[in-house]
Amino acid sequence: MLREEGLVYTVQGEGTFVGPPDKGARQTRKTPMYRQIAEDLVERIRGGDLRPRRSIPSETALVEQYGVARETARRAVGLLREQGWIYTVPQRGSFVSPREKWPHE
What we know:
Layout: E1 8-11, E2 15-18, H1 23-28, H2 33-46, H3 59-66, H4 70-83, E3 86-89, E4 93-96
Antiparallel strand pairs: 1-2, 3-4
């Protein structure tokens, strides 16, 4: 109903925002938000803030920190897993991979 009334709009993979769609701002973003989150986490891993075999921030923490939808945080974590930066243990969480498993760039 809010969307139909023009009070909010949704950008797939990024979230729902208050107000009318701002097409100008949308076009200036070159990197999708989930990739920006993943890049930030990679920098934290490289910088030693997130250490091997230690947990990364939860989806809930990422949602709160970046102000994004849960699916956006989930996509960021999935990308890091695909790239080899992290691994996930079911029912336990996601952890930074050992250094020797990190992608070669």
